[in-house]
TrEMBL record:
Source superkingdom: Eukaryota
Family recorded in the similarity comment: Belongs to the iron/ascorbate-dependent oxidoreductase family.
Region described as Disordered: spans on this chain: 244-263
Alphabetized InterPro entries for the sequence: Oxoglu/Fe-dep_dioxygenase_dom
Molecular function per GO: metal ion binding; oxidoreductase activity
UniProt domain Fe2OG dioxygenase: residue ranges: 149-241
Alphabetically ordered keywords of this record: Iron, Metal-binding, Oxidoreductase
Organism (species): Chrysochromulina tobinii
Protein name: Fe2OG dioxygenase domain-containing protein
Length: 285
């Protein structure tokens, strides 16, 4: 029998470098790239420290007491109860993603109150901070002239008694995803979001422990969540294109053409500078 080469599994590591679109502002956005061993394939992501301020995170978490029953429909990745709270679906405010077990008591009322409280907050952040970031990264060739649009947005929680993992998957529903950490303190949980190339490679954990830290990636990134201890809260938004000019196919997931990098125009560059100057100022407060 042929034996495996002694270098198997192949060495594998995520590569991190300063994200070039943000070099000038030197705010520490990092581009990571996962290269599949032996095949010429890679997937990139950008980690943005403090995309939201801690005050913004506190405002979101303030609407989410631990006693709030989350939605328990089957998760699309592993079929177990999802423990999600959907706030946006198909580009619109939603009251529920899918039917699931009745939360009992006044559970629905509590969920509706939480969504109503989150709606203005998340909506402003999605349009003013998240969507332009996605459009700047993937470009108008992919996002459409009007820019990428938030299609789905939900809060996830990983409580010790509920869910510890979200198995690795691609976000096939999304052109691009933004995940924002909703931690109130940096030691609220251990473990977290990992990126992977599957097989025998070792997953790479991303450090998103500070509330407001965010990662932006396209649908082609293999990723998942494993919480080793504590409670983790995250805000997940899936983006599609602008929905213009493609009839019913609009807003369907689209693969980012490989190696495409958005070329930022002066207006977008200025906007990014401002986002980063603001986030630096927030850090200094
Ligand atoms: O909770 C997270 O950080 C990510 C969850 C995720 O990958 C997803 O909702 O698609
Ligand atoms: Fe995902």
């Amino acid at each position: 029998m042929k034996s495996l080469p002694s270098t198997w599994p192949p060495p594998f590591e995520a590569r991190f470098e300063t994200y070039s679109a943000f070099n000038e502002t030197a705010t520490g956005a990092l581009e990571g790239s996962m290269s599949w061993p032996r095949i010429n394939q890679s997937a990139a992501f950008v980690v943005h420290p403090s995309l939201l301020s801690l005050d913004e995170v506190r405002a979101i978490r303030g609407a989410l007491p631990e006693s709030l029953p989350f939605e328990q429909h089957e998760d699309s990745v592993d079929g177990y109860a999802a423990h999600e709270l959907w706030v946006w679906n198909d580009g619109e405010y939603t009251t529920q993603r899918r039917a699931g077990p009745d939360p009992g008591g006044d559970g629905h009322k509590q969920q509706m109150a939480a969504r109503a409280a989150l709606r203005p907050l998340l909506s402003t952040l999605m349009t003013e901070r998240l969507a332009p970031l996605v459009t700047a990264r993937y470009g108008r060739g992919v996002c459409g002239a009007a820019g990428c649009v938030a299609c789905s947005s939900l809060i996830r929680r990983y409580l010790p008694s509920e869910r510890r993992v979200h198995p690795q998957h691609f976000d096939l529903e999304a052109l691009a995803t933004v995940v924002v950490s909703l931690s109130l303190t940096e030691d609220e949980y251990e473990g977290g979001l990992f990126v992977h190339t599957g097989g025998q490679a070792r997953p790479q954990m991303l450090d998103l422990h500070r509330g407001g830290d965010a990662v932006v990636h396209a649908g082609d990134l293999l990723h998942g969540v494993r919480v080793n201890s504590g409670s983790r809260w995250s805000w997940v938004t899936w983006f599609g294109n602008d929905g213009e000019g493609e009839g019913d196919a609009a807003r369907q997931p689209q693969r980012r053409p490989r190696d495409e990098r958005a070329t930022l125009d002066a207006r977008e560059r200025n906007w990014l500078k401002k986002v980063y100057a603001d986030s630096r100022r927030r850090d200094e407060l």
